[in-house]
Amino acid sequence: MAKPILLVDDEKQMRDALREAIQRLGYSTVVADNGQDALTKLNTTPFALVVTDMKMPKMDGLSFLKEVRKRVGKLPVLVITGYGTVENAVEAMKEGASDYLMKPFSFEKLTKKVNSIMESLAGSREIVSINPKMKRILQIAGEISTSDTTVLIYGESGTGKELIARFIHRSSHRKDKPFVAVNCAAIPDNLMESELFGHEKGSFTGATERKIGKFELANEGTILLDEIGEMSMGLQAKLLRVLQEKEIDRVGGKHTIPINIRVLATTNRDLYKESTEGNFREDLYYRLSVFPIHVPPLRERQDDIVPLSEYFIQKFSALLSKEVKGLTKEAVEFLENKQWRGNIRELENVIHRAVLLSKGELISVDDFMCDNDTPVADNSSKGIKEMEKDLILKTLKDVNGNKTKAAKILGVSVRTIRNKLNEYGKYFPDT
Ligand SMILES: Nc1ncnc2c1ncn2[C@@H]1O[C@H](COP(=O)(O)OP(=O)(O)OP(=O)(O)O)[C@@H](O)[C@H]1O
Ligand SMILES: [Mg+2]
Question: Cα(361)–Cα(327) distance, rounded to whole angstroms?
Fold first, then answer.
């Protein structure tokens, strides 16, 4: 039985709305109308997650959070802060909140945050490997995590770079402080500076509120600069200055803000080569690669294919409420002979899809069928979520929106279908 989520809010309306939304995601909930009550409940029940309001009359959210941290060190806490109270959120992150939601928030936002915390609890943080080279890497990562060295983690896409970065943070003395990841490839260049360093109200057209940047949010913790190879030259210069001076300037700000931060970076490019070719600042390259870690592609650790597959089978069986327990002999051969250009992410996607399709306790080669007739190697990372969505929506269409029938055909629970539809923001009337 999965552990319930504890919801703490003094306002009944909010409490009910939260409960309803979170139950729709398939999680069970327990509610408390104040911090004291919540602490009593924490003494007797193990929870998966706490969602708490920050502004409450008897015991405010921050004191409650501190108390939770004292009692159950690792329990993730999602805090809800009032409109425009950024400082509140920053304070809460410092005290070890896992994430925050600012009022007013949409159902989608809440769903996304809760799901991502719950999924990370479901085990996606674990690093599975029996490969000697990989074990050595993890050992080294563990050793360097105690210092504040900058680490550059590089390797092909989908090899587990971000997982290793999170592992370094978790093993470090900063583990109870924030871990903030910024994907340098996903944010348009002109917004990146304010994303990283924040901005003051009115500092440029569109800056209607003061914004706290990722560096400030991650203060005292770790920042992960994901896909650093994509950062523009201009910003590289600013980043270098931040790393040297250990202080940041908000865009339009009047004074600098000191920061104490551990920097990790990942890239799937050959940054050294890029730096010699003038595409990446050489000085920044040397600054970042004080300690380089190369994560080998899956083809160089074939022995990990089966343990990883078994791990993913367990994970998706639990998430999709299926009874799949393993692989047939032919299925193992298939996986061992396949080329994994998308590396572990691709393997994870292939297993996800197979668990979804599988009818029995063992995954057979047939369950990998769609991999034979479509070349998925490269677009597979776009793959699974999209394909799962297509599959579910198509099946629903075939049975005129009858969720019970669709669930039967796909071999998942009706609840899984409902959750997925919620996730897609699609509504099929209940039949
Ligand atoms: N050793 C491992 N054990 C379990 N899961 C793993 C392992 N390595 C990677 N994964 C999983 O594979 C997926 C890809 O990992 P991750 O995001 O860390 O890769 P990445 O190298 O950062 O990829 P990209 O270059 O595409 O950003 C994640 O879902 C991660 O949880
Ligand atoms: Mg990554």
Answer: 8
List, in sequence order, every beta strand (DSSP E) within 139-243.
151-154, 179-183, 222-226
Cα 341 to Cα 81, 269, 286, distances in angstroms: 43, 15, 29
Nearest CA to ligand 1 atom 29: 345
Does ligand 1 have an atom closer than 6 angstroms to the CB of 344?
A: yes
- Pocket lining: 315 vs ligand 1, CB cutoff 6 Å: no
**Tens of pLDDT along 60-93?**
999 999 999 888 878 999 999 887 777 888 888 8
User: Which tens digit of pLDDT belongs to each residue from 375-417?
Assistant: 333 444 445 677 778 888 888 887 778 888 888 777 777 888 8
When divided into structural domains, the chain yields a total of 3
- Same domain? For 106 and 172 the reply is no
The answer, yes or no, to whether any atom of ligand 1 lies below 6 A from the CB of 181, is: no
Q: Which ligand is nearest to the CA of 307?
A: 1
> Residues 270, 324: one domain?
no
**Domain shared by 120 and 136, yes or no:** no
Distance from C-alpha of 101 to C-alpha of 109, rounded to nearest angstrom: 8
What is the spatial distance between Cα 212 and Cα 192, in angstroms, rounded to a whole number? Answer: 13
- Per the structure, the complete domain to which residue 390 belongs is given by 305-424
> Has residue 429 been placed in a domain?
no
Q: CA torsion angle for 58, 62, 65, 66 (degrees, to 10)? A: -100
Distance between alpha carbon 70 and the CA centroid of its chain, in Å?
Answer: 25
Query: 388 phi and psi, to 5 degrees?
Result: -60, -45
Q: Which residues of 239-258 are buried (b: 16+ CB within 10 A; e: fewer)?
A: bbebeeeeebbbbeeeeebe
